[in-house]
Amino acid sequence: GCAPPRDGKEMYAPTLYALHKAGADEIYALGGIQAMASMAYGCVGMRGVDLITGPGNAYVAEAKRQLYGTVGIDLLAGPTEIMIIADDTADPELVATDLLGQAEHGPDSPAWLITTSKRIGEQTLAHVEAQLKTLPTKEVAAPAWRDYGEIAVVADIDEAIRLSDEYAPEHLELMTAHDDEYLARLTNYGSLFVGEEATVAYGDKGIGTNHTLPTNGASRYTGGLWVGKFIKTVTYQRLKPAASRAIAPVLARQCEVEGMLAHGITCDVRFARYEGAND
After folding, report:
1. Is the whole model's pTM more than 0.70, yes or no?
2. What rounded mean pLDDT belongs to the chain?
3. Confidence band (pLDDT; 50, 70, 90) for 154?
């Protein structure tokens, strides 16, 4: 595993401990695009690997994009996103807090609210503006909210679901009186946080779900990093002589239709080869 040195000195101790407990047998204090290149090509004493996973900044994302094919990757992650669906039962102060909690990731991090209540939309906006005045990371969160913050007031649950699935957010929080209905009907999101008791920071930092998640609408067709990413599928075929002869003319014809004549010959020779085969 790789993790960057903290303050240019040594790896952050909790990260080192986590890597050790997870069973990593090679650990390097290295981060950024230099870590990507080292893992892909093998240098500074490191062996080349087959798969690189894990989040990073925009430079890491671009490095992973360029290395894809040389090695496998988990996904191409863009700026962190949060969407909250809230109705009239939500606490607008808490909604604002959670929106800004993700806006601090970067000045290009979207923070979206979909609400069926105009009152919640207006009050959330007021709370965001008030909280930004004292937020420790307002230098980052304020431009993110200014340029990428959105509040959409919709007519009903159906419209909220349609809009959310169209955006396909990375993180999606529910603060409504109908969370179970949303849970059953929503389809496009990286990770879903059901109820005000759950927050994105929990998923990011240790509640158990993976937080390497699809962004930029990619949750329409893929999910986040999971154990299956570290497993590959392989297939094999074995036929008895009679089965090979039985299928040969059918597939020879298919090859001919597709214009793959040499393919068809491999079928024809087996049809002739296994004449009289009974099993």
Report:
1. yes
2. 95
3. very high
Domain extent at residue 60: 2-73
Q: What is the 3-state secondary structure (H, E, C) of 14-32?
A: HHHHHHHHCCCCCCEECCH
Candidates 171, 173, 196, 211; catalytic one: 171
Q: pLDDT value at position 191?
A: 97
SS3 per-residue string spanning 232-263: CCCCCCCCCHHHHHHHHHHHHHHHHHCCCHHH
**Domain shared by 111 and 216, yes or no:** yes
- Same domain for 160 and 216? yes
Let me know if 93 is a catalytic residue. no
- 8 A C-beta contact, residue 228 and residue 209: no
pLDDT tens digits for 188-229? 999 999 999 999 999 998 888 988 999 999 999 999 999 999
Task: Count the domains in the chain.
Answer: 3
- What confidence score (pLDDT) does residue 277 get? 86
Question: Is 234 within the bounds of a domain?
Answer: no
User: Is 139 an annotated catalytic residue?
Assistant: no
What do you get for the CA distance between the two ends of the chain, in Å? 52
Active-site residue identified among 104, 170, 173, 196: 170
Question: Amino acid letter at 209?
Answer: T
